[in-house]
Amino acid sequence: MKIATLVGSLRQNSYNLQLALTLQERYKDKLDVDILDIRSLPHFDQDKELDPPDVVQRFKAAIAEADGVIIVTPEYNWSVPGVLKNALDWCSRGERVFVGKPVLTMGATPGMLGTVRAQLHLREILSSPGIQAKVLPPGGNEVLVNMAMNKFDPEQRRLVDEATLTFLDGVVEKFIAFVQEHTVQPVRA
């Protein structure tokens, strides 16, 4: 199952990037997790939405070709980082590659509740008319890795907290089933 992954932090040692790398390694037998580059996307420009730059076209094609999307984000000023919002804005115009796409949101924070508001805002953005993604419903599926400095190995740069990994295993299994349920099968003649 091909999963496009967006990380809302550009920081090299970001806990959110480390969480995405953990997903990539831990579930490699079940998921092909491709961490997409959002750093190189230019600022969204409505004058170019119908003929976007090549980097945007490649980014949108990767989303379109994926069976599902995982978005791993920190919280900046009680919302999503601008770089992540910019990537989503490109996807909401012209070819709208998120429409009907299964999505899982998650985040890591050095604090207690960071990413909670960001993930709430992200759910709103993902349900907007230009995006219309199918987000894994809440109710035990919210992934918030708090106190991250105690749950990631600083040398391996991977999540190592067993209780959190066990919880993550359960959510990923639910997401796999959610993707399978919402994947549009090609019509055969």
Written description of the protein model:
The chain has 189 residues and is α/β, with parallel strands linked by helices. The protein is 35% helix and 16% strand. The chain contains 5 helices and 8 strands. The chain has helices at residues 15-26, 54-65, 82-91, 116-126, 162-182; strands at residues 2-7, 32-35, 68-72, 102-108, 134-135, 143-145, 152-153, 158-159. Strands 1, 2, 3, 4, 5 and 6 form a 6-stranded parallel beta sheet that branches. It is globular. The model has no long low-confidence stretch (mean pLDDT 95).
Layout of helices and strands:
Layout: E1 2-7, H1 15-26, E2 32-35, H2 54-65, E3 68-72, H3 82-91, E4 102-108, H4 116-126, E5 134-135, E6 143-145, E7 152-153, E8 158-159, H5 162-182
Parallel strand pairs: 1-2, 1-3, 3-4, 4-5, 4-6
Antiparallel strand pairs: 7-8
Give the averaged pLDDT, no decimals.
Answer: 95
Structural class: alpha/beta
Q: Would you identify the regions where 5 or more consecutive residues have pLDDT less than 50?
A: none
Distance between the termini: 25 Å
Can you give me a brief rundown of this structure?
Helices cover 35% and strands 16% of the residues. It is α/β, with parallel strands linked by helices and 189 residues long.
What descriptive keywords fit this protein?
189 residues; alpha/beta; 6-stranded parallel beta sheet; 5 helices; 8 strands
